[in-house]
Amino acid sequence: MDPYESHSFIVKIWLEESPEEAGEIDEATWRGHVTHVPSGQRRYFERLQDVVAFIRTYTEALTTR
Predict the structure, then answer these.
(1) CA distance 5 to 49
(2) Where are the alpha helices (DSSP H) in 1-65?
(3) Could you list the residue range(s) of the whole structural domain that residue 30 is in?
(4) How many domains does the chain have?
């Protein structure tokens, strides 16, 4: 298998709670990072759609060759 025809990613996500301020209800935000294994390139995110956007940069390269 050609190594450029497949990609591996590690995705780590966690729930980050913000401190309660002035009587407001605590809110939580999903945060995380995704790492492209072959290159070691990593992106941090606060929205899950950012994970998809990062991965898409690699998969689009496969479909445009």
Answers:
(1) 23
(2) 48-63
(3) 3-63
(4) 1
